[in-house]
Structure formats: C-alpha cells, structure tokens
Design goal:
The protein has a 7-stranded mixed β-sheet, with helices on both faces. By secondary structure, it is α/β, with parallel strands linked by helices. The protein is globular, with a radius of gyration of 18 Å. The C terminus is likely disordered. The protein has 11 helices and 7 strands. About 40% of the residues are buried. Helices cover about 50% and strands about 20% of the residues. The structure holds S-adenosylmethionine (SAM).
Length: about 240
Amino acid sequence: MFDDVAPKYDVVNDVLSMGQTRRWRKVVVEAMEVSKGQRVLDLAAGTGTSSEPYADAGIDVIACDFSLGMLKVGKRRRPDIDFIAGDATNLPFADNTFDATTISFGLRNVNEPKKALQEMLRVTKPGGRLVIAEFSQPVVPLWRTMYTEYLMRALPAIAVKVASNPDAYVYLAESIRAWPDQDHLAAWLQDAGWDNVTYRNLTGGIVAVHRAFKPVTAENGAAAIAAHKGPVAKLRRNITR
Ligand SMILES: C[S@@+](CC[C@H](N)C(=O)[O-])C[C@H]1O[C@@H](n2cnc3c(N)ncnc32)[C@H](O)[C@@H]1O
C-alpha cells in the first residue's frame, strides 16, 4: 500500500491535514531535543520528510522503513540522508545504538506495534528518548464529532480527487478510529519498558506526541559504556539525563 502512495504521499498529506503536519512535525523535533554529534533513528520514515529537520541541523539521522517505494522517493528527494530498509518489529540495528528514536505517523501502521515499542527500546541507548507522533482522540466531544465526520466522509472524498490510491485513505480513516487513545498508548509504552512517559495533545488531540526515556540500569549502563567509542563524559551526560 505504501509503495503505491509513495509518489504523491507528501503532497496528499499537506492537502488532507490542511497544512497542519508542518506544525506537528516542529513539535516532534522540539521534543527530541537532539544536537549535533548525536545519532537519531527515524523509524517508519517513509519518504524521509520526518527525518529532514535532523539532517538539516547536521544530526546523524537514519531513516528506516520497510516500503522500498517510500524509500526510493525519499532517496531521490534527499540523497544526503541514510535510508535503510528494515522492519520495525525486527530492527537491523545493534542494542543501544541511538541517542534518540522517533516514529511519526508510523506506529499505527505496524502490524505488531507493541513489538515495535520493544525493538525501539532495544536499539535506543540507556537514558535515550523516544518521541512518537500519532493520530489520537480529540478530547472535547464537539470537536471529536466534527473530526470524525471529516475523517469518515470528507477525507475519503478528497482522497479520490488527489491521491494515486484512494483506498489507502479509507484505510487511513479506519486505522485512526481503531487506534488506542492517548492514555492507552502511554500504558503500552510503560508495559514495553519505557520510563517517564508523558504526552502532549496537538490540534485538540487529533494528534498526540508521546515522549519516554529508556531506563538506565546497572546492567545496560555498563554495556553502553563498554560499547561507547566517544568521550565517556559525553556518554555520562546522555545516560544521566
Ligand atoms: C504514514 S507513513 C509515515 C512516514 C513518515 N514518518 C512521515 O511522518 O511522513 C507510515 C510508514 O510506516 C511504514 N511502516 C509500516 N509498517 C512498518 C514496519 N513494520 N516496519 C517499517 N516501516 C513500516 C510504511 O511503509 C510507511 O512508510
């Protein structure tokens, strides 16, 4: 499905979200709080639009996705970004590789999202963070009703006019409705082993940005120090954050 939507993916996103995606993406980048010299995994990165802000800031970002169609469009647009084919439920990276991991509008599409949360924990360094942007539940009832109308009626109708595979946008609407709400997803994160889980609603809860940290334990802290090739002082800063 994502191979099919790849060529027009970003344009259709802008149309269907009425430009909101740009604001949502800014909030994700702020929540990541990463700086030059750090390594970021952008999982389910698609065409790399969610990876671009890190590359633009000189941060070492890996854009990983399992749709070769999306990756090809991404590589054509941004040859400077490292695109890697990989499955979120069986990531092709070693333990404790990334300072921060993020997934934007991707977790809902993964067949086994709980497994992906565990895999993201595995590849993130102790003390490192996870930021998830995903569609969620509007909190005010009237707003929720208006949004549901848009999702189930207007969105598929607009998609017929602008998208290359309109069925994918029927799936989009249905998958958003079936997705757990903010608190439920926060509980999944905790169950997967993530710590200090918080979230922030955007556009009244149409989107939620969850943030969490990988706990530092005596065991994983020592393993991370042993594996680390850079200055130990910098690593200490990361793991005590
Ligand atoms: C809606 S796109 C999001 C792309 C990008 N992160 C963005 O913000 O525009 C969802 C992506 O999830 C990817 N995806 C779904 N299941 C996956 C899996 N198991 N492993 C890796 N990528 C997956 C799809 O291929 C698709 O590119």
